[in-house]
Amino acid sequence: MILYGVQFKNISTYEIKDCFSCVECGQTTHHLHIYQRVAHIYHIPFFPLGRICELQCAHCKAVTEHKAIFSKDLEQTKNAQELSNELKALKKTPRTPWTCYIGLAIVLAIGSIWGGYSYHNSLLVQEYLNQPKASKMLIVKLPGKEFSQYPYTFAYIDSIEEEKMMVYFGRISSTHQSNSSKDAKLALEEFKKGDYHRFEDPILVASDWLNDVQLMEIINK
Ligand SMILES: [Zn+2]
Predict the structure, then answer these.
(1) Residues 162-175: pLDDT tens digits?
(2) Per the confidence metrics, is the pTM higher than 0.70?
(3) Could you tell me the distance, in angstroms and rounded to a whole number, from the CA of residue 77 to the centre of ligand 1?
(4) Distance of alpha carbon 72 from alpha carbon 143, whole angstroms
(5) How many whole angstroms from 9 Cα to the centroid of ligand 1?
């Protein structure tokens, strides 16, 4: 399986009259095919590299490859230098198709969506820390060495009274926040149905315990 490599895309073809005489049939009209080299990963084009071109006889289809075009000592019907310059100019003419950047565009789009999401979440977290509310499911990162293997857990804020909160902590914790997040959403569904099996018995904590743990995400915003 090819994970990454180079693709060749035919981006333009020009007819060249009075080119060199074809070595096979002697005709002087050729087609100049211009190929864009594109770096790909899993066949998704990421970004363009250089270009190559080849000349194909319009009559017998014999092909003169890129290297030979600019170095071949052929019988010229045109001035060799003039032809070489014309071909070089044509090679630069076509615009690079946007499809050569699809992979890069996807990566940038995901990056900006994720960046926007993270920023939005950090605002919500800050707002919540200033004014905690009951009936919220949270993902928290627990401090201390004893939790270093499973630092993420979810917590359900059952009630808030003055400086105290009643909190159900999740039984399942995970090293991965994403797993925790999934667990938390599942747990919330079960919690709504009155199924508390994913939770420890509720614990009374001081409302400033949120300052001791790291609040990662608020699930039911
Ligand atoms: Zn030919």
Answers:
(1) 888 999 888 765 66
(2) no
(3) 15
(4) 71
(5) 24
